[in-house]
Amino acid sequence: MKMITAIIKPFKLDAVREALNAVGIEGLTVTEVKGFGRQKGHTELYRGAEYLVDFLPKTKIEVAIVDELLEPALAAIAHSAQTGKIGDGKIFVQDLVQVVRIRTGEADVDALS
């Protein structure tokens, strides 16, 4: 089992959700986050004063999947989130040691479906 964490541009969320659904992944968790990488923020004007916006709004998607869905999921996220511009985001993959569905007590792969 794997946990995929993807940091993407907020306006790409619907496209990523639809792409994941198309490869058979239905459940995901979404969080609004702020951060920066190579973009290093940008400057804005407010009432005539220029200031630096260090942290840019991003969307974090977390998806727990079975190993067989890893490559299709990575391809779906990468293709649907890509704009070709700096700040498109990153995808992180981690091993999941254990998963338990609280309602039924199902564990591991049974808890993911």
Salient structural properties:
113 residues, 3 helices, 6 strands, two-stranded antiparallel sheet, Alpha-Beta Plaits, four-stranded antiparallel sheet, elongated, single chain, alpha+beta
| Assembly status | single chain
From the alpha carbons, calculate the radius of gyration and give it in angstroms.
17 Å
Alpha plus pi helix count: 3
How much helix is in the residues? 10-25%
Just give the CATH class. Answer: Alpha Beta
**Unreliable segments of 5+ consecutive residues:** none
The CATH architecture classification is 2-Layer Sandwich
The side-by-side strand order for the widest beta sheet comes to 2-5-1-6
The helix/strand class is: alpha+beta
CATH topology group: Alpha-Beta Plaits
Written description of the protein model:
By secondary structure, this protein is α+β, with helices and mostly antiparallel strands. The protein has a single domain (2-112), classed as Alpha-Beta Plaits (2-Layer Sandwich). Helices cover 23% and strands 36% of the residues. The chain contains 3 helices and 6 strands. A 4-stranded antiparallel sheet has the order 2-5-1-6, with helices on one face. Helix 1 (13-22) packs antiparallel against helix 2. The chain is elongated and about 60 Å long. The model has no long low-confidence stretch (mean pLDDT 91).
